Amino acid sequence: MIPWIVNYGKNIASCTQVWILSALVIYWLAVRLLRYRYRDSIPLHFNYPTRSSWADMTLNDAHQIHLKLTTQEFPSTFSLSLFFALFKTYGIPSISNLIIATGQVATPEKTSKRAADTGVLLAEVMANEPGSERNVNGIALVNYLHGRYIKAGKIKNEDMLYTLSLMALEPIRWTDKYEWRCVTDLEKCALGVYWKDLGEAMKISSHTLPSASKGWRDGLHWLEELEVWSAAYEAKSMLPSASNAALAKGTFDIGLFNLPRGLKPVAYGVAMLVLEPRLRTAMKLPDPPAVYSHLFNTAIHVRKWALRNLFLPRPYCLRVKWFTEMNGHSGRAHFCSYTAHPWYIKPSFSARWGPKALILRAFGGMVPGNQKYCPDGYRIRELGPEELVGKGDVINYSTNSSRAETLLSELNSIPGPSSASTPRIHLIRGDMSNKPSVQALVSETINKMGRLDVVISNAGWTRMTTFTDIEQQIDDSDWDKCFTMNVKTHLWLAYAAKDALSATEGVFISTASVAGVKPSGSSVPYAVTKAAQIHLVKSLAVVFAPRVRVNCVSPGMLLTEWGLKFPEEKRKAAVGNTKLKRLATVEDVADQVRCLALSRSVTGQNVVIDGGSSL
Questions:
Q1: Is the pTM of this model over 0.85?
Q2: What φ, ψ does residue 455 adopt, rounded to 5°?
Q3: Where is the signal peptide (predicted)?
Q4: Could you tell me if residue 414 is inside a domain?
């Protein structure tokens, strides 16, 4: 019996080994199959099976492909490559000289603030759907921050185009060099479509590329021409400079800030490995030790093999998130990572006392919680240099100062930075029926806030009459006041604001009335001049194009303080006349104004908000 027991035990061990070996083979096959499933599914999923079909690639499809690469396929490599793409621009003396001249990298904290703001803005622009509020707001702020220097001739289009080229090309180069697979041509086409559109949104011209006049075949064609141009520009312009070296040192100090002292030389040496010789020369940086190169390349090859054969692809539920959702009350979001100082990081328990935080504490690093680093999060419009933080909104009022102060108090109760020199909300008293007063309003706004993005022209005047009684409709004074307040005031304000709005490619939005669409309302002079106001908006949209959009909204009856002056029977009749059997609300109007402010493709339009009563 004993030999039988021994043999039986051997059989069990043999079976176990077979099962383990089979499981390992099945797991390996599953990894290999799933690793390449997404890459191989792109042509069919997005319906771009051939090169000729790539010419029809939409921006939304390109963004989805780009987002998948950045959050699931290669999140670490894409993130690092974008950081080094920005770092690489510091090898151009015209760029590094300007950055140092701004004073934004004068201290470690200013340098880390600038790096954090840049990272947040990039994430807001790249990770949010094109045309979404957060995406548009991010692009608008980038354009404003650059616009001051472009207007002064301190930023040239070629420097902007070179920066754009690195943002588009470095992730591809890094992925091909350091990741478990290369970026496919279809994915490159998507990146080309995405970055070309983003460049156009940021007013970066590609006119120096060979096919600029006749157009590009597809996104890949644009990207290939951009790569050739970028290499030539770099060879010509990446030259040694003291400003390059100073900026490189400050950036490395921030990048290695939270590392233990003993690891900093090693990390510095590894960083030298990923910088091209020309960039090291331009920044006056040393060559890395030869032993680092051997160890680094060995580690990269081991990582590639392991990811390709041992690790399942990252599922959607574990995708990398760069920021949180906006808080509905405060309008703030938190960033999800930091390098040196914990800017905009939520001081949660895990962020302060989790394993990573404990390691940072042990080696003297920084953890979230210090009020200096905005633990309440960020608003997009508050990112950027400190002297611009707090720039916000101006509210004009005529005579009712108590109502204006009450509104100011309510708005200031929403958390956010504000000071006497940089107010978030500012009140200006002005008579909109007086042209010099309108001009002064615009001048004071620009002086206080530094810019104009959106002007909402809400002035108007009428007198309550019986609309069908002609005897009440022929008062010359009514006609003069209505024409001044309902037409001329909007013209004066638009004219005074046009240059500032042109500088930011802003929008002018006027509040008209459904009375201008369908004869109705408080008086005939009001209805006629509101119709004139709508036509004025359409005319100004033609005159101010292409840099300023001009639109208007035409609400029906609103139950505001003015609307409540109408007799109850007239209000009930107004509800009955709507197709939706409800009156529009102030919030409905605000939503439409917001849409017009955000949409970059709408101008010369009058949006009627009346529940269908004018149909």
A1: no
A2: -115, 125
A3: none
A4: no
